Amino acid sequence: MRTLWTYARTNVERTALILAAIVILLAIFGAWLAPFDPTQIDFRARLQAPSWEHLLGTDGSGRDVLSRLLHGAQITILSTLAVLSVVVVFGCAVGMFSAFVGGPIDNMLMRLADVWLGFPPLILALGFASALGASLEAAIWALIFSWWPNYARLTRMVTVDILSRKFIASADALGVPTHAKVTRYVIPNAFDVLIVQVTLDISAIMLAISGLSFIGVGAQIPMPEWGAMIADGRSYVANGWWIVLAPGLMIFLTAFSFNVIGDMLRRELDPTSRRRQP
Amino acid sequence: MSYVVQRIAFSILSLFILLFVTFLLSQVVAGDPALIAAGPNAGAAKIAELRQQMGLDQPIFVQFGIYVGNILQGNLGTSWFTQQPIARDLMRELPPSLELVFLAMLINLAVSMPMGLLTARFAHTKFDDAVRLVVLAGAGLPVFWIAIILQQVVAGNWGILPIAGRLSFSNRDFSGATGFYLLDSLMQGNLNVFIDTLAHLALPAFALSLLFTAVGVRITRTSMINEFRKDYVTLARAKGAGEGRVMFRHVFANGATPALTVFGMQFGWMLGATVLVEEIFGRPGIGRYAIKAVTQSDIHAVVAVVFVVGVVFLIANLIVDMLVYALSPRKQRAG
């Protein structure tokens, strides 16, 4: 945490770090902070503009928008993490395997990854949703299915680079076994590149999940997922603009913050970006 | 030459994998197609007969062969919902979507190319930092959210552009040979319809282009910035070439190539992203068709959309790669 803060050079980067920290805290504690039940319908209180009782107003079914936003943070962050953790582990395993094996198998795996990257994730997710039934889980699986080749290719590239260095030749001469090479040399060296990519992907995956929920194949209304909230609020946008505005702003601010942090990490960690030193 | 053959072989391999994935998708869900085709009152003998006719008693590889054969003949199956051949549905829905994607791509290129070039030339200045910030913000915008806001504010409150649809009510009888209204109206010399089509396209195309433009600027900047470091640029400057000539004649011509490849991929992704905007702006198109098919559990229609978008993606990439190859001065060495 301290290190992250010292990386920040501009006020925008500091703000992004604070915002990201807030979103993560909301994902953990948001449910306790919420003043109302996020799914409690109250038709007498529907479409109320922001007030002291309902800070962000109420939606078309009289649910408190703020409470829904707070609960939604957890859904968004958890599903993004679910996608990323599976994708990183699986993608990296494939990438390292490919780099270590080399030859025609390596070639074939990477061609496969190239083809795979071609499927537009949103369309693929539609296919998945109709196969598994529309749900948040289906959307998560669809994104896992379409995202892993990114990491396979990246890890392979980094691993091939590491394996070509001199210290690997020395390790070979000493008879270091493969599993030790992976844990001692490859993973620590690949870590910086991966962490940059993961940070930048957080926003992309968040946007994809909320987009899928928006078109109705991800989280289902009344689940307080941010994309689903926008879909729900669309019908009331003429007399309840806050219902659409609030979750959209949350998605935007979170995605923007993680983009800024990812960009900052790339400057600080990635040796290939030769940014002049201050 | 060998590159061209290799590249086409890769496209065919990709097409094969695409076919396999869509085949698996349609297998997972379809239930028993013979049972559905036979209808609710059919006896066991009839169902068995149909099963044999449809090749369902064959091993899965044979079934895959039948599937590929059907698709090569342009038969994508029949929609459970519209009861129409899906291929015909898609021929109708594809032109409006492609029109939208073309325009969004045009916006993307018109912004990305110059901005990428300028930020690379003036890298690490205040200007570069400001553009970077805008780009990072753009890459965090939910497309569907910004589309709703644009529709409410620009079309609703300000009334500058039409709210939804493809044409105004007064032009409802317009039809053309290609289905691309921009093209049809020009061919018929109907400027009124052309402008009307463009006005209806403006907001959705802009909303669709935002995210892709943000990425486009970054990609162009990255590939240009490498060019500025190369020896020939130093040489050109040493020979006294003006900075404008260095930027456009030398750097842009060489640095555009890697960026072009990414723009080719973006084309297919944009077609996929139409699912986020078409519905909002009430436009017909493949995205809206896909959503409708999913909500109706019309599995074959959904799979067909996955397939067609995949094919468009493959074709766009093939064209771009061929273009890059044709433009590349280094091809003599490669061939």
- Any idea of the CATH class of chain A? Mainly Alpha
Question: Which word captures the global form of chain B?
Answer: globular
Judging by the overall fold, what is the CATH architecture of the largest domain in chain B?
A: Orthogonal Bundle
CATH topology of the largest domain in chain B: MetI-like fold
Strand content of chain B: under 5%
User: How many helical stretches of chain B?
Assistant: 14
Q: Quick one: how many beta strands of chain A?
A: 0
Largest sheet of chain A: none
Membrane topology (chain A): Multi-pass membrane protein
Protein name (chain A): ABC transporter permease
Subcellular location (chain A): Cell membrane
Family (chain A): Belongs to the binding-protein-dependent transport system permease family.
Question: How would you describe this structure to a colleague?
Answer:
- The complex is a heterodimer of chains A (278) and B (335).
- With 278 residues, chain A is an all-alpha fold.
- Chain A has 10 helices and no strands.
- The longest helix of chain A is centred in the N-terminal third of the chain and has 37 residues, at 65-101.
- Chain A starts with a helix and ends in a 9-residue tail after the last helix.
- Residues 274-278 of chain A have low confidence and may be disordered.
- Chain B is mainly α.
- Chain B folds into 2 domains: 1-73, no CATH class; 86-327, MetI-like fold (Orthogonal Bundle), CATH 1.10.3720.
- Chain B has helices at 2-29, 33-38, 44-53, 60-72, 86-121, 126-138, 143-157, 181-187, 191-228, 231-238, 243-277, 286-295, 299-327, 331-334.
- The radius of gyration of chain B is 24 Å and the shape is globular.
- Chain B starts with a helix and ends with a helix.
- The mean pLDDT of chain B is 86.
- At the A-B interface, helix 4, helix 5, helix 8 and helix 10 of A face helix 1, helix 6, helix 7, helix 11 and helix 12 of B.
- Chain A: It is found in: Cell membrane.
- Chain A: Belongs to the binding-protein-dependent transport system permease family.
- Chain A: It is a multi-pass membrane protein.
- Chain A: This is ABC transporter permease.
